[in-house]
Amino acid sequence: MKKSNNRLSPLTLAVHAGSVGDPLFGGLVNPIYQSSAYNYDQLVRYPRYFNTPNQEAVVKKVAALEDAETGLVFSSGMATILTSIFAMVKAGDHIIFQNDLYGGVHSLALHELNRYGIAYTMVDAADPRNFEKAIRKETKVIYIETPSNPLLKITDIEAVGKIAKRHGLISMIDNTFASPVNQNPIGLGIDVVLHSGTKYIGGHSDICCGVMVSSKKLTALVQASASHFGGSLDANTCYLVERSLKTIVLRVRQQNQNAMALAEFLEAEPKIGAVYYPGLKKHAGHAIAKKQMTGGLGGMMSFEIKSDPEKFIKRLKFIRKAVSLGGVESTICSPCKTSHVKLSAAERKKVGISDQLLRLSVGIEEVNDLIADIQQALPIETR
Ligand SMILES: *Cc1c(COP(=O)(O)O)cnc(C)c1O
């Protein structure tokens, strides 16, 4: 459920939403409430009930940015996703996933769902009608992820949301790659928005967490399961997440700008092959991305390099070789050696992930320094 039509600017919300300050001493920032035991006269607060003051502060910020009623903060993205899915289904139910999924979620479906009696189908999300065709009478959830990893494929969020509504299904989205700054799926008709907070929400490559936002009603459902599964986040880390969120709009806007300039540079560079970035006009999802990513087209991209990818990565001076993404520092990784290492070369080829493909998470550095770093790492022509 969308919360409001005339909300404050994200810049203001990121700083002020959820801030109550310190009433005892007049401090500006929320204190870290270390207590795990609370007086229960008014409300039974407990870390694993997902309702301590520092947990609530994080949720208020993300919910404000996503224009959602409320949500929950978890100890990882996967805890968020697992708990949210399991809160919505029981044995005998069916889930429809898009087939381009974060590796961990793909593996979760493959290795866990069937043994709990939960069936699923994976469909090509390029055409939203594929979701409708896959609906059975047992279907409960439609689950999408856009932009996807690592080819930045775009799913039409509004079209999927409408299909889910028409059939009385719960729609869920992994919004990690877009961040709460660039894309707000609640307003596009999605029921549950999921984030690996380890990425843009934390934003400094030093926190593992996750956040879900939704209506009060669905959040209460997830909260009930969450209190059984655990997976809550401690007060100190919540404080760090809250602190990170104050600058998320600045960070992500700079990352959007840098990524657009880098994608244009890479597209024009003869030593680079295909470039996958939703901001480029020739990207298959460009038009839909522009429509639904109202805050910006993101800081993630991938590209094919015509020379040896490992040698190229080695020559980079400050674009760091690392998995994970969304940090202030630019990072690069080879999907065939990381997220898709378990697929055979033939299987990878089928899903469009060549051994020459590199995924870049663009940081907040000066873009000309990033371009220069890539330029000096490209092989020098020898004749
Ligand atoms: C990292 C990531 C996850 C999992 O999050 P963790 O915090 O590692 O548990 C889920 N979805 C996407 C798109 C991710 O990038």
Give an overview in words.
By secondary structure, the protein is an alpha/beta fold. The protein has 2 domains: 10-245, 3-Layer(aba) Sandwich (Aspartate Aminotransferase, domain 2), CATH 3.40.640.10; 248-382, Aspartate Aminotransferase, domain 1 (Alpha-Beta Complex). The protein has 14 helices and 12 strands. The strands form 2 sheets. Strands 1-7-6-5-4-2-3 form a 7-stranded mixed β-sheet, with helices on both faces. A 5-stranded mixed β-sheet has the order 8-9-12-11-10, covered by helices on one side. Strand 4, helix 6 (157-166) and strand 5 (170-174) form a beta-alpha-beta unit. The chain is globular, with a radius of gyration of 21 Å. The structure holds pyridoxal-5'-phosphate. Pyridoxal-5'-phosphate is lined by residues 76-78, 102, 104, 145, 149, 174, 176-177, 196, 198-199, 208, 210.
